[in-house]
Amino acid sequence: MGDVLAGFHAVWEFESDSVLIRYERGIRTPKLFQALGERRIPLSALEEVTLTSGRRGTVALRLRPRPGADPLMEAAAGQLPEGSDPYRLVLPAERETLAEYYADELKALLTEAASGPADRYLVAAPEGPMHFKAYDGKASFDGTTVRFRWSWTGASSAKWKAGDRSYPVDGLSGVEWRSPEVFEGHLRLLPREAGGPAGPVQPDQDPAAVVFGLGYGPVHESLPFAAAVLAAVRNRGPAPAAVPTPARRDPADIAERIRHLGELHEAGLLTDEEFSAKKAELLAEL
């Protein structure tokens, strides 16, 4: 097609086999759009095109991806509000005829594409390395391993007892993301093999999860992070022969963590044996 359609917050460029979406930067543009920058959506990843009337004299052109085609939408699991839908282009009502033309053109092309759930991700995941600050720690992802480093001001005693965690993607089966815009969000890593404590564990007590909300781990940081991890899990290769040796830590950071462990010990939240064991682990990282 080779045409361009500009709307509020984004510009869509139509090509013979894909739609290139370029998101604008601006005060009113949703932060998620700004974080995504641009996305190329293959027509093979789409199952439907709709055009509906919007609010305040607008129309909305929307693409509906096939289930399992986009890691971002799979991670979101229907939790994004309408205004933050990256597949929705809002235009002034006077451009409805033009939008209808493009909708019809796309529908004609989609009849030749596959339909139903996709057996692999067809839309590229956000690129890494990635990181964000949650309420109880910092999460980072380098493309192969997710790392949680707990905050001494926000992490629960259960997470401090477990220590900072590293999770290679070859040991994961997926990611559970809950939007911080609903109530209290979290990102939980799901292991490939069943294990750990029986029954559900609250995210603030689970060393495989970070919690966020009230300014910590906003959607535009935590959701692309979750999507990148999901894509890596889906595309993972053979398990590594050994877990990489962690890098040496800052002595000042080790001292601060030992001090905090001492406070937990004095408060009765750590036994003598647990305190000694965790202190030895931290000292071994110097």
From TrEMBL:
Domain DUF4429: 12-106, 139-229
InterPro entries documented for this protein: DUF4429, SHOCT
Pfam families xref list: DUF4429, SHOCT
Residues in SHOCT domain copies: 256-283
Name used for this protein in its record: DUF4429 domain-containing protein
